[in-house]
Amino acid sequence: MEQADGTVKLAGSAGQVHNLLYVVTAQTLQWRNRIKELEDLINSPQVREHDLQLFFEQNPDFLFGDAYESAYPQIVLQRELEGPLIPDFALKPTNTNALCDLLEIKLPKVKLIRESPNRVRLSSAIMEACAQLREYRDYFEDAERRKAVQREYGLQFFRPRMIVLIGQRRGHSSMGMRKAETDVPSLSIVTYDDILERAKARLRRR
């Protein structure tokens, strides 16, 4: 029923009245505050990867597009002769038959590309992240390891997509980025600009 002030209310099964306008407004405000918190982290010269890891553990929906439904932080990939591997996030897809992917978090201030007169290349920070993700990906070539992870976490992996969250696109030309990304076609580069733009688009839809 609509009130004189324009607020829409519904009566629950026990006669409770729910103020829908208030609920929507509260959710929108909460989402706006979370965006601001992430912006502050991105702009802070003292931010650490650990700070960003904690933010995304508490706000995993910032990592989701339509393709994923949940994020598992720092699953432990046990190895027989070496120490364990611990990726930042395993991403579980919305399609229950699909396989999980891996995401690694790096700092927002690092350079994405190196430009020379003859060539545009990915930065050393991205190449290091790629090497790290490849080690995680190759772990799942072993069938027994895949089974162990599925038993422990209920997650299915095989040649997971490699995703790195790193840097910002501003200051880099779109053409330069596209040229550089072809160096490692198996790596998906997501920037903090991308994350913020997606979050703000979601806010506009609320």
UniProtKB/TrEMBL annotation:
What's the domain of life for this entry? Answer: Bacteria
Q: Which InterPro entries match?
A: SduA_C (IPR025359)
Q: Where is the Shedu protein SduA C-terminal domain?
A: 48-196
* Name of the molecule in the record: Shedu protein SduA C-terminal domain-containing protein
